[in-house]
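Hi, here's the filled form for the chain we discussed.

Project: internal
Contact: R.S.
Residues: 326
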Amino acid sequence: MTQELSSQMKVVSFGGGHGLFQTLRAVRLLQPEQITAIVTVADDGGSSGRIRRELGQIPPGDLRMALAALAPFDDEGRMWEAVLQHRYSGYGALAGHAVGNMLIAGLYEVLGSEVAALDAVAKMIRAKGRVLPLCEIPLDIEADVAGLDSDPRIMRQVRGQVAVATTPGIVRRVRLNPEDPPACPAALDAIAVADLVTLGPGSWFSSVLPHLVVPGVVDTLNRTNAMRVVVLNLDAEPGETAGFTAERHIHILKQHDAFFSADVVIVDESALPSESERVHLDRAAANIGAKLVFYDLREEDSKGYYTSRHDPEKLAAAMRSEYCGR
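And the returned structure, exactly as it came back:
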């Protein structure tokens, strides 16, 4: 049965960093009534890491990027996007800090709530959606990594998002510390009433998978009636997923949540050149109950060359086609 996009449509997007930024830009083009970004909070590097260590707050960097992605497309909105993303220069204590990170941190100290601080920034910039943390406490990512010793069978523990993202070894599995952290209640409420849920693209182990090891999110996601869409990365990333096939990305989802299921897996049509690769990926998608679909998703630069980013307009068209055609 074919259905149209509803003006009352509610969309939830999971992720973090640049992948979530592109997804939110795509979701905005669907013009839903409500957009909620649910963002991982395990970053321990750069400005976010400094705020986390010095103030004991959740790292704001990925939350800031999601807010920037939801800024209006008018002149004032573009100004706020630039302000949130701007980093102080120089060599003093503020050097390298993003203005948006400092704003979120300051509002948290005034309001006493991460969610209230994010909502205040969203209101100030007239954001076209809401940004929520996966959890309201800082998280640490721990990974089991092979290939760091001469014996490939030996597994080593690597701790911290930056260390996991840049490890020269092969990441086998990730978990969060503290174990079984409480999910943000507002995030669970958004998942429960969503019509469309997206997972990915993004750093698979540090931005995508953490959502699938938070029990409250897992339970609510498995009960939702929303259409669940997995968007695969355009390429394997250096570090944590170097050498990974597209098929393996899907298997890892199931490995971290045995009950995980989806309706659609969206893949860039240039990602799998051979028919045999597509057959293997189709089987992996079927294992999570999903239909495998291919679209042209890559963004082009001003010279017409493909980039490593998803094109928001192309991704929005793919989502619209799959949602309306189900």
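Let me know if anything looks off before we file it.
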